[in-house]
Specification:
TIM Barrel, 38% helix, 16 helices, transferase, seven-stranded antiparallel beta sheet, ligase, 494 residues
């Protein structure tokens, strides 16, 4: 499926911040535009104060890059831009350069559905400075949001402990784009279905839903509304029971369920959307069981998230299916992941990679320099640590020490001979040509399940999770410290 073609019918190359274009123009003017560079896209903190993050959105990134081209309309728009003196912002030569520009970057990335941690490169982009710069905003826009929602969905599904979670946040989502991307990411994160029919069409996600309170209110009585709905959908009858009086609604659902049985059909269950969900679900369960509907499901909704679901579980609520909308698709408690895209190396005239460092008064914001990669170590199927290292760097196969990039007193010794290793970055594009076969969403969901299974349960705690070890290989750590001290010395104002 071509996402850009199906959703937008055109290139999205102008989906960028204005300063990306001004930098591209300045690179072109200074003759640096074709210099080879490496940029890394990474985040600094897990969302939701959690212990893991799921990478999501790579298929969108691939589609964006394959359609990366300045169209005639794009160039006409840029041609019409004026500076403060009323003169064209961009020279004709630069616009001609953009017209002829073809995507030629190498892109390596972690696969969708991979569990990732702070400071690890979700995407590594290598190519001409101008191209790398023009990719920044769109890649951040795509990966920040979908990774955030996939992670939120995974947390909610962990709280549900294997019971189905239905995503139905379309009406509360942040616009059309936000709704579609959220439905996709939520499915990746483990949700069983979506209410978003367009997402079902575009992405092949199962769709589900029943009826709203307006259906009940459109009839003289709740019982008549249930009867009419059962007549329309005898094989999919799940009744919303809280329009007037919840327990009376359950009684009416049972009456219609008995009518269905006489016709050889079976009521699927009921939905609760308000009130004390623990109390009403337990009372409804008793009533349904006493009436012989022991297999009828009880679906709960009403501004649920992982914390409320955990609370209801602790209260032993009789809920089988969880409908989650607003707090999932808007990532209600943290509306942004905060991933960044930083230059880490420039290729010299001799073909070597010159590492680049960005300093900050906050140690958290000092980047990891160089052309680097990362790998994961496993023991008996469980992930034990991740190591970030320089490409081509030789290191000991007997004993490694990884050093936390924020707190260098936190160190972990690894004996590679006792572990299995996995390189996390895979080749997506080489010289602008796609090398990677995009998996189906079902394959991505399977990867999510396997990745979460590989994490110790302490890293998956919703509150105060145990910190997963991620560190720099010693040589990279020393290089970083040397660059930090050199940059401070050279930029101290003297």
């Amino acid at each position: 499926m071509k996402i850009t073609k199906d959703l937008y019918q055109s290139s999205l190359t102008l989906l960028t911040d204005y300063y990306q274009l001004t930098m591209a123009y300045a690179y072109w003017k200074s003759g640096k535009g074709e210099e080879e560079a490496v940029f890394n896209l990474f985040f600094r903190k897990h969302p939701f104060q959690g212990g893991f993050t799921l990478a999501a959105g790579l298929e969108y990134v691939i589609d964006f890059c394959e359609n990366f081209k300045f169209t005639d309309k794009d160039i006409a728009f840029l041609q019409g831009m004026k500076n403060q003196d009323g003169e064209p912002t961009f020279e004709k030569g630069f616009l001609k350069y953009l017209t002829d520009l073809n995507f030629t970057c190498d892109i390596d990335a972690v696969e969708e559905g991979t569990v990732v941690f702070p400071n690890e490169p979700l995407v590594r982009v290598k190519g001409p400075l101008i191209q790398c710069q023009l990719l920044e905003t769109a890649l951040l826009n795509i990966l920040n949001f979908q990774s955030l929602i996939a992670t939120k969905a995974a947390r909610i599904n962990l709280a549900a402990k294997g019971e189905p979670v239905l995503e139905f946040g379309l009406r509360r989502a942040q616009g059309i784009d936000g709704a579609l991307a959220a439905s996709r990411a939520a499915y990746i994160g483990g949700c069983a279905s979506t209410s978003n029919v367009m997402a079902g069409k575009l992405f092949g996600i199962p769709v589900s839903g029943t009826h709203a309170h307006s259906w009940i209110m459109a009839f003289p009585s709740e019982l008549e509304a249930f009867e009419a709905y059962a007549d329309a959908f005898p094989d999919q009858t799940l009744f919303l029971v809280d329009t007037y009086d919840t327990l009376n609604g359950v009684r009416n659902a049972i009456k219609v369920g008995q009518m269905l049985r006489e016709k050889g059909k079976e009521m699927l269950g009921i939905r609760l959307d308000s009130g004390d969900l623990a109390y009403f679900s337990n009372e409804a369960r008793k009533m349904l069981d006493e009436a012989g509907f022991t297999n009828a499901k009880i679906v709960a909704s009403n501004d649920l998230d992982e914390q409320i679901i955990t609370s209801l579980k602790n209260q032993e609520a009789s809920i089988n299916v969880w409908g989650v909308g607003t707090k999932l698709v808007t990532a209600y408690d943290q509306p942004a992941l905060g991933a960044v895209y930083k230059l880490s190396a420039i290729q010299t005239d001799k073909g070597n990679w010159e590492p680049k460092i960005k300093l900050s008064q906050q140690s958290l914001k000092i980047n990891i320099p160089g052309y680097h990669n990362f790998k994961r170590f496993y023991s008996r199927g469980k992930a034990v640590a991740d190591m970030i290292y320089l490409e081509g760097q030789e290191f000991s196969e007997q004993s490694l020490v990884i050093i936390d990039p924020i707190d260098q007193t936190r160190r972990k010794r690894i004996m590679p001979a006792f572990y299995q290793e996995e390189e996390l970055l895979v080749k997506i594009f080489k010289k602008g040509k796609r090398q990677y076969k995009v998996p189906t969403l079902e394959q991505v969901r399977e990867r999510v399940a396997n990745q979460l299974e590989s994490l110790d349960k302490t890293h998956k705690r919703l509150v105060n999770p145990h910190l997963y070890p991620v560190g720099l290989e010693e040589n990279l750590h020393h290089l970083r410290m040397e660059l930090i001290l050199s940059a401070k010395e050279n930029n101290d104002g003297h």
